Amino acid sequence: PPAKLMKKLKTAVTEWGMIKEGDRLCLGLSGGKDSLALLHCLVTLQKFYPPGFFTLSAATVDPGTAAFNPKPLIPYMASLGITYHYLETPIFDMAGDCMTGDSICAFCSRMKRGSLYSCCRDNGYNVLVLGQHLDDLAESFLMSMMYNGIMRTMKANYSIDAGDVRVIRPLMYCREKMMRDFSYAAGLPVINENCPACFEEPKERHRIKKLLAKEEILFPNLYSCLSNAMKPLMHESAQDVLSVIQHQVMDKMNMSRGRIAARKNLLKKQGKDPEVEEAVKVEEAPLSDTEMAAQVEALSKLSNERLLQELSRRQQTTRRNNSVKENESILGIEE
User: Fold this and answer.
1) 191-212 tens-digit pLDDT
2) Which of 5, 251, 262, 280 has the fewest Cβ atoms nearer than 10 Å?
């Protein structure tokens, strides 16, 4: 791989602590230019570490459509001598029975990721490597803000909710052009995906890509600036921090009227009197000044990293509790 590509990849790996001694990596290999380029970058990266520092394998999910045939990767990976898992998952057959409300692309993406997680668990891999690059992160950043009203992009290095697999994106500082140029110059067996479902209508990501291309002509340093702007959002605790701030602002602005109305409607459906339920609702007891001071003192002794971990833990607990309450409410309505 070109020196510039390797330099950016090594910078990302080092800055975000992506690879640790004893890690067993499994690369999600689609056969596209990005994942194939990343495969060869990781093979080269192993030479910069002591022998056996980390192991590398790869896995491909075959969704079972004639428009995408990754089988040529099987002999290619055998020629490289890298442990390879070919996962035949009939995603398109499953879509007819299991897909509810999602686009086929979103359903396929989730199912592929689930297959990769299962592969990691079944074979003892603790790190899943994905091939998204800086262009992907920038597009996701703008799409999230423009269409969902949320400041978010893909994370650099994080553990999934189950806690048994870590996901890393070593190409996060690399431009798409770098992988394209390398893949075709090196004659890598790039497999183009021509799924008809992906081309039925203009996609938001494609429109954002064109928008960024136009802006880059006017501002050549656009992606460098976007990378700096997104860097805090790439941290695994970023959404937890922003979520806490958002909830505080929402509470101060008293924007919970819709939730109150929804709760009253729910209580009515359950045959309960909303006024009585609200009157007997027990609020959480506020902390005394002494208890508050003790908590502040304890938190002040933690490092920044531990503070973020504690915040993430609390947010995960809140999400789990809310999920349980929602499930109980749904069961209550059905009963």
Assistant:
1) 976 555 554 444 788 899 999 9
2) 280
